[in-house]
Every structure is written in structure tokens, then in C-alpha cells.
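Re: duplicated header lines in exported C-alpha cells

Our pipeline writes sequence and C-alpha cells for each protein into one text file. With two proteins the header for the second block appears twice in some exports. Here is an export where it did not happen, for reference. First protein block:
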Amino acid sequence: MNEEQSLYPLNMPSTQSILMLGCFDTKGEVFSFLRQCILEQGEQVIAVNTGVMGTTTSFPVDIESDQVALEGGCTIDSLREKADRGHAVDRMGRGAARIIARLVKDGQIKGAIGMGGGGGTYIALSAMQEIPLSIPKICLSTLAAKDLSRQMGNKNIVLMPSVVDVAGLNRISRLLIQQAAKSICAMTKVNATEDVATSGTIAISMFGNTTNCVDQCSELLEKRGYEVLAFHATGVGGKTMEALIREGYFDAVLDVTTTELADELCGGVLSAGPDRLNAAAEIGVPQVVVPGCLDMVNFAQMDMVPEKYKSRKLYAWAPDVTLMRTNIDENIILGEILTNKLNQSNVAATILLPTRGISQLDTEGGFFYNPEIDQALFGSIKKNVSQTVNVIEVDAHINDRKFAEIAVKTLLNMIERK
């Protein structure tokens, strides 16, 4: 089903509303109370039912579960007949996401709120992936105390513990639903304002091992009037940066720390997934890319390092962080991965190679210092890069002032030529 075939209904409110998302078949009473609390704040509500087994008569439902199921690629009857809860949750999450994407595109949502247990939370968080940063999102959930990072993705969703099950109204659930309702209504009234005029906004990636470089680059860019947003390359940070690049937040990208590529290759704990380093090339944002911290892969505690890596060069960065030095073969592959991504760009892209080391640990006398491995990385980059991507070797360490100055100068020249 493509967007033109979407079953998204046309009888939506004429003004922006708060989206209320949940399983109205089993939780109609609590959603009716939530809706009333939102209406009392002077807001309108778009109610989307993701419950498979039925609906509610307690309040008007704008988008029913049969429509959600069809958007998810099946019928509501087939989900009921199959009686597979996991399958149903997945399909309803996909369908709700498609509907919400259309509502966002048409400018009809000013905020979103969901409630639920395990299934309801999964559906709500899946659907909210289609809502941009500028629109507030709250999920009142029985699972809020668990690690939901995978379901949260890179979105700014506020998780609120329900304390008791979202299964009926009582003195606790009433209080928390009222708080959630007033919170989402208040959040929709916050408008993003520019305190000062800027020359533009730059995304920059960082790690503890590249902090000095990033600090110096940020200082130089801010002196030129740019706003700099730094993203910690912890997997979630890289995903978030990529998502915001796609949402059009940045005029250019200074990707100093591409270490998440190494974690993706070697199974580290800070992978940002296979789409890392794709966004700027895909939408045409100028970027300067550095193979910062590709000398390392991140694992948790030392005893959590996979058996196949136990004999490798390992460094305890913190009690719960173990870094593994990448080898020649891995760096050859990483060079290919990095250049293949940048080769797809239809606007200016430059790779800077700090020939005296690519991390704080990769400096002369440092624990990961190994010029031979670095040269394997650099050689792979130069071998695989296309003619549309410029490669500049800098006789400096990544954290040297000289390197930061060249990185900023290169990026500013690319912005001016855009």
C-alpha cells in the first residue's frame, strides 16, 4: 500500500489537535477520562483506536481499529481469526504509524499521548516514531521503568510510569492521567524561539576520545555565528543526529566521530545501525567526515567482551566500558563502508584524515597507537573514494588545534559554495 492508497479519513478537525492513541476495546474507560481531561484544557482530540477486539461507545472515535489494521496490511477480522497477539501488535503499530505520518504531513497534530501495558506501549511508541522533534509526545505506561530504548528509537518521547495498571480508574490512575493530560497540553503551548540570530546550525558528533577536537571546532564555529549541536556517538546519539538531518535541522554536518560504524561491524554495544552516515548524503547536506575513533569498538564490562575478542588489545575506559582496538582487516572494511556511504552524496563531501592519530588513545605513546593500522584505514578510504568526494590528509592528531582549524575552515568553505 502506498501513500496514495492510504485509508486515512478526511473528516478530521479543522484545527490542530492532540492525538490520543490506544486500545479502546479494553481500556475505554481510562481513555474516556483522558480525553475529557484534555478537552477541559481547551484542546481538541483525534482519537485513534488500536484495539483489535472492539471499540468503545464512551466517546467518539475518529479512526477505528479496522482502518488501522488495513494500514498495517491486513484486515481486523484476519487479526482476530489468527489470534496471534505478537502479530496483531506489530500490524497495529505499523498501521498507526502510517496514519500518524499522514496526520503529521497534513499539519493536524500538535501533540500526541498514548497509554497502555505491554502491547499498548509498543504500539504507541512504534506509531510515535513518525512524529518529529517539534511535536511533544507522552506515553503513560506500565513499562516505563524498563529499558525501552529500542522501542523509543531516537524520538523525544516522555515516558511516564503509570504506577498501577492502566486498566481502570482509581485514586492513583485518575491523578496520573490528569497529570499526563495537563502535561501534554502545556507542552503544546511551548513555541521554539530563536534567542539570537545565527549564521546556521551545524551537527557535530563526539566521543570522550574526541572531546578536545569537538570543543575546539564548536568554539571556532560559534565565533562565526553558528549554532552547534553535539551528538554523543553512543548509538542513540548517531541515530538521533541522522534523524534530525533528515528533518532538515542542519545546514551542514561535521561528523568528527564515526566510531559507531566500528560497533556495527564488530558487534559492539554502541552501534547506530546500518543507516549511520547515510542521511546527509541522501538529502544533500554538505558534510566533513572524519574517521574519528574508528580505532575502537565499545563493549560493556571486561567480562562481557565476546569470547572471540578476548585475546585482542582491550582497554578499560571505565568500569562498565571496555574498548577494543580494531585491526588491519577491520579498518580496510571500515574504509570501504565509510567511502561507499559518502560516494552517494550529490553535494559537497570531504573526508579529513588526521595522520597522527584518530582518537585520544591513538596518539604517540597511547594504548591504541598503531600507525600501520591507521594507514590501512586511510589507504582503504583513498582507494575506494569516488572523484566527487574530496580527501584531505592533515599532518596532525585529531585533537590538535591545527586539525580543528582545518576542519572548520573546510566546512565553512563548503557551506559558502553550496
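Second protein block, exported in the same file:
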Amino acid sequence: MAGSVDRVQVLGFRMRVQQLDRTDGTLGDTAVLDIGVQDTGPDGGRWALRNRGLAGPVLAEADLATMWTVRGAPHLYRREDLPQVAAAVTPFSDADAGKRIYDAAKPLKAAGIGNLAALDAVATAMRSVVTEPLVKGEVSARVAALMPEPYLRFCRPCDGIHLYEMPFRLAAVRAGLELRAGTSPPVLQPIAGFRPADHVPERFDLIRAYLRLLGPATPKHVADYLDAPVKDVKARWPADVAEVSVAGETRWVLSADADRFDAPRPQAVRLLGPFDLFLQAKDRPLLVDDPARAKALWPVLGRPGAVVAAGELAGTWRPRQSGGKLTVQVALWSAASTRLRAAITEQAEQLAAHRQVRLVEADFTD
């Protein structure tokens, strides 16, 4: 066993490897793009990249692409990496595919249709439909018209028949489709010259990426992140890992990172978006050990962002925008120094610039 590390060391390690302590960088050297940067909400993928030192021309539209991948959520990737990403996000097995598509697996099983075969069938239909940019609702309607009953469900809100949502989303990658940036509702379009890679390079292997960016971790942590069965994750667990004890629990980290926990804690202050990778770790009690604070940070609906300071989660924040004006409401969990408040206000200014609006104030409620 490599030794024992505490939560302060773990959070500091994650801040460093996720590059939340840097002020500039390139798309090529931005580590979180290997696992994908969730692009949910106005302060999604591009704000997460800005928090890691990327801004302006570095975020050129032509160099980034958005696909529905892990947990069916939209994620940003380097465009040049899409073939490898497509191979990496493919379910490990038919059972894994069934877990990832949730309730859609039941009617497929009853009809004797394999889950992976079903994803391929939906992908074939999507590929035939989306030959040019097309809004999601239109794609769904046209594909539903091509698919038999086991693929379809009744939708109460619109009193109509649709494809199950998760097979639709997860099949889009297999169909070679991306989401056009900035569209709501989303517009799907073909990826020019797309063909999935024949194998997954270590850099894009999702299990290794989780251990590298959110370690130390257990197979269950990784499985929960992917919505995959623990059995499938264990079967593909890397050989080059080291055991690490965290709060008495045996976890693992890539061997190359086993000695990286003793570096000084990063002192950076960041306003993390609600779905930033730092907050996606599946050991939430390690991130926030107070149940009331955890409930405030991860409510069922309407997540706030998180204030991170010196490697520690320090509170929550919510944007309030009206026209071209932005107020950032900050709820800190303990008394803050004048210096910390100034740093948070500076981050709020950057958020306003990112949104191309004017900051009215950072409104602190302790």
C-alpha cells in the first residue's frame, strides 16, 4: 500500500491534476478534456475550461465539439479526439449497455433484442435521418417513425410516442453525430469524416481517466460515475495502480500518481459551475462532510455552483442575471477574510466577462 492520505491531501491533489490552479494553458494540455467536460447550463463546459486557464481564441469553436456521452450528458471534447472518445464511451458489455439505458432495457429484453444491438439499430436510423443540422425534436420524431414498438414509449406530457431518451442520446455517438454549440433545444449534425477508433488509447480510457483526475477511488466510484456495473469496471481495472488508504478505506490511484499527495495545497479561488468535474466525484462525503451543506450543494433540482478556495469547498454561489447585468449571490459556510471576498469578487467579474454582461455585485450572505 502506498500509504495513508487525508481529505485535504486528496482535494489538493484533485485541484492540481484538474489544473484548477493554473492561469493559462492550451486545449492540448488540458487534462479534463480527456474525460470530457460536462456542458450543462450557461456556466457549463466553457466556464469550466476558463477556470483552468483557457479563454478567448483558445476556445475556438472549430477545435471543440460537443457529444452526448457519459450518463447521456453533453460533454465537450477536442475535435481531433472524437474517434478515440467514441471508442472510449462505448459500453463495456451488453449488461453495461442495459444499465446505462435504464428502463429502456426492459422492453428490449422482452422482445429478445440485445442492448448493444438496440443502440446500433437506433444509430443506423439516426444516421439516415440526420444528413444535415436538425433540431432534436425533429430527429426524435423521424427516428421514432422508423423503429418498432420495443424502442418506443408513451410520453404523458405531450401525449405522444417517442424513443426512450437514453438509447436516443447514447446512440448519437455511434451515429457520428455531435451537438451544435449554443443551441437550445439542441441541434444535431453529422461529424465530418467521422469514424470511431479501433482501440482506446490509455489517455482516453475512462477508468484510468477517473483515477487520474478524481482518485484515489474504488471500482464502485468509477462505476457510479459511468452508470456502469461494478463487475465490468473491476474486470477492466488497471494493473498499474497503487493502494491508498483514505479515511480507513482502501482505494486506488495510478501508480504514477502515488507520490503526488504531499505537494502544497493550491491557493486558487474558483467559482465552479454546478457540473464541474471537481464536483462530479462519487465520494461526496469526502468533498463535503456536513449533511446540511451537502444538501445545499447537491439538491435534487437547481444545483448552485461551488466556491473552492485553497483546495477546500467554502460555500455555494448562484447567478442572477437580468438583461446585461449580473449579480452573483455567494453563501459562504464560514467567516471569510477580506482577501477571500476580494478573490471571489474577482472571479465574479470573470464570470460576467465570460457571459458578456456587466457585474453589478458579488452579494455575500454568511
